[in-house]
Design brief:
Blueprint (H helix, E strand, L loop, with lengths): L10 H37 L6 H5 E5 L7 E5 L7 H6 L10 H34 L15
Antiparallel strand pairs: 1-2
């Protein structure tokens, strides 16, 4: 009876590359989050109806410094509490939304940004694997290698 042997190399490299994947994803997604957060704030500034500019200048955008995977848009001036009245209206005033339309308009752009990082993400994960993969010598058919 013939005996067949097979050597699989690179498993450790694959495990290490998989372990690095969250950092690689974080690196790419933090840029998407940053770009989208600031785009929402810019769109809010374009849409808001203002008389004095106080509300306009109070719109702020921040991205978390830890992971970069969360962004927020808000107001840095407590005197612009009236943003709610514009956004949702009152009994005596029709709504003039600017937050919801800004967020909704950026939704499709966010999806496109996430899709755009796919090829770069794939390339970076492959590079992380290749950087750790053992070098395979050309020993002909059946002589070890990556599976």
């Amino acid at each position: 009876m013939a005996k067949t042997t097979m050597t699989i190399t690179g498993v450790e490299a694959l495990q290490a590359a998989i372990k690095d994947t969250p950092q690689i994803v974080r690196k790419h997604m933090s840029g998407v989050i940053r770009e989208t957060t600031f785009a929402v704030a810019d769109r809010m500034r374009r849409l808001v109806r203002h008389r004095t500019g106080e509300l306009l200048s109070a719109i702020t955008a921040t991205v978390s410094t830890g992971t970069g995977l969360s962004g927020s848009v808000g107001f840095d001036n407590p005197r612009v509490f009236y943003w709610r009245f514009l956004e949702y209206g009152t009994v005596n005033m029709k709504e003039k939304p600017f937050i919801r339309p800004a967020k909704e308009a950026e939704g499709p752009h966010y999806v496109l940004r996430v899709q755009a990082i796919g090829p770069r993400l794939e390339a970076d994960v492959a590079a992380a694997f290749k950087a750790r993969a053992p070098r395979v010598s050309g020993r002909g058919a059946g002589g070890g290698g990556l599976l």
